[in-house]
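This week, look over our next protein:
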Amino acid sequence: GSAGASPPARTSPDYEVAIRQVNSKDAQEQSLGVQRLETLSASKFPPADSYLGLMLLTGTRIAKDTARGLSLAQRAAAVDDRFGHYVMGMIFEKGVAQPKDEAAAIRHYS
C-alpha cells in the first residue's frame, strides 16, 4: 500500500452539484445530475459510487440495474465510504441483489 495515503474524499463541489441536480423537480436537471454522478463514479469517487449504486438498486431517476448498483456499493464500501456501508447494509437487510444476511447487514451498519 501507499504509506500515508489519505482516506477517500467524502464530498466535492461537483458531487454537491450532482446531488442538488438529482433531487431537483426539473427532469432536465435530474438528468444532468445523473450524468455528473456517472462521471464522478467513472473516476472512482466513492460517494458517487454509493449514491449512484442506491439509485440503480431502486430505479430512482435511472433504469434499475441491481447488479451494477451492487457492484458500485461494494466498491464504495471497500474503501470505507460511510454511505457505501449504509447501502450495503440495506442490501443485506432487505435481500436486494443478495440473499438476506442479518450479520452482514449489522457489520455494514456498524
Q: What stands out?
A: The two ends are 25 Å apart (CA to CA). The chain has a mean pLDDT of 92. Residues 78 and 84 are 8 Å apart (CA to CA). The helical segments are 13-22, 27-42, 46-58, 66-78, 82-94, 102-109.
